[in-house]
Amino acid sequence: MSSEDPKKADKEVQAMDQENKDEILQHFSTFKDYLGDQVRKGEKLNLSEKGLAQGAKRVSDYLNKHEEPRNREEKVLHELWQETENDKEKDTFARLLVRLAQQTND
User: Which among 26, 67, 69, 102 is placed 20 to 30 Å from 19, CA to CA?
Assistant: First the structure.
């Protein structure tokens, strides 16, 4: 979500070294802060709400497939993401994640 192309969000997460990823995912508040920073960067690049949500969706897909939840909050998010039945529900979930991240920026 830190570039103009939200498709690059999952590549950015993949490229992150494991130690940095561990640090971000260890505590939910750190994860929210990280997500908030990424949303803020996207907003500065004038990404639309839809673009921000697409980035959040890609990151969520990546985390769901490649990372184990490391705390209760991430476990809930993981389980909710798995229960989404179609792209429309995933889009809604991703928009909610963006809103959550925006609140950390206030």
Answer: 102
pLDDT of residue 14: 66
Please give the radius of gyration of the chain, using alpha carbons only, rounded to the nearest integer: 13
Structure token pair of residue 57: 């969706």
Please state the pTM of the whole predicted model: 0.76
Q: 72 lies in a domain?
A: yes
Q: Please work out, in degrees rounded to the nearest 5, the angle formed at the alpha carbon of residue 98 by the alpha carbons of 102 and 20.
A: 85
Number of structural domains the chain divides into: 1
25 pLDDT exceeds 80?
yes
The separation between CA 66 and the C-alpha centre of its own chain, rounded to angstroms, equals 13
Sign, CA dihedral 72-97-87-24, equals negative
> What's the burial of 29, exposed, middle or buried (CB within 10 Å: 0-12/13-18/19+)?
exposed
Residue 1 lies in a domain: no
